[in-house]
Write a structure and sequence with these properties.
The protein has 427 residues and is α+β, with helices and mostly antiparallel strands. The protein has two domains: 15-107 and 240-423, Beta-lactamase; 119-239, Up-down Bundle (Methane Monooxygenase Hydroxylase, Chain G, domain 1). Helices cover 26% and strands 14% of the residues. Helix 2 (103-116) packs parallel to helix 6 (227-239).
Length: 427
Amino acid sequence: MPHRDIRSGFWTGAFVLLCLGSAPAISAPIPETTPERVGLSSQKLQRIDAVFEEGIADGHIPGAVVAIARQGKLAYFKSFGMQNVAANLPMRTDSIFRIYSMTKPIVSVGTMILHEAAELYLSEPVEKYLPELTNMMVAKPDENPGTDTSGNQMVPADRPIKIHDLLRHTSGFTYGFFGQSPAKQRLKQSGLANLTSLDTPLDQFVTRLSTLPLAYQPGTHWEYGRSTDVLGYLIEVIAGENLNSFLKEGIFEPLGMLDTGFWVPKKDWSRIAEPLENTGEPQLIDVTKQPEMLAGGHGLVSTAGDYLRFCQMMLNGGVLEGVRILGPKTVEYMTANHLDETISRAGPYYLPGPGYGFGLGFGVREANGISAWPGSAGEFFWGGYAGTYFWVDPDEELIVVSMTQSVTHRGHYRMVLRNLVYQAIIN
């Protein structure tokens, strides 16, 4: 494993209070400015306040944190509502959230750190490093739903899974939700479909996963699933250290992401954001204990400020405040579309949505139009199961990070926030 330069990228600045309620003053994650100085309207940004305050009053969400940066400056950074309703704790701008699938872009960047160091190549078969993934089987489409899919409906994979497939979700690995298929059925039966339980160590998880069929032939179909969990184990094997240590040394410490990791230390439990109780919200991961499985697909916790720093590094072409994580061409490569015409995006569960392709860990916008929500070609984004969301718009030099803990209402606030941010651009 090559030596990684673990440098201090911490930013210290004036303490400000930009949140509602009685939360303590928090240092800004990047230098601040007024909205007008970066072409945003303060008056129009107030519409964001009104929408989130209404959602809290209506009992849709407990609270939220929203951060908006443009031209490298923080123009809007507010907290709303409650961090923990049961404990009567107001939301803070440094509240800690379960970010679920917003883990994936970070682990993808970790993979590309190894790629830049020539420790792996995207064209390599994953089985070179993880031999348990040799001779994978594929579940044929279920022509007779309800029949036994454990026997002759399995066929050998046409080719090995490549590292490239893991990064762009074309490996054939799936989740147990988003529709029905023989592969999803087998995953549910195995007990590996539960995202809340992290009691199986990563190596054992991948070994068990290797005994299950893929949903599609590798390299033929975009299918959201366990690819990034496998990617996390691949990092561990190649780097010779656990995923938490690798990300901490290679990304979190250099970028000053002090509150990002796979669990919350006891001293910070008072900052954990919780969903509303008794409202049909599903159970979320217990982040107060160190998990056995470091889930590269959904295991991290973070703050809006930490994630904003990660996004600013990406927007800057891999560098933040003189600390370089990736080269600019690597960032350009990651945020380009990697789904050509031979890879199917068919079906209602293509999560990037119309007008979007998929890069290496990020959904990427291919055109200004087509999509039902505003944005710019070249924008990249992703979100998390429990209500976190971000996007980076290079054309507008814009970053938006939004965090709440609401599975039920996440989609609504993501789309509304997009509309409200773009309507606030005046220059």
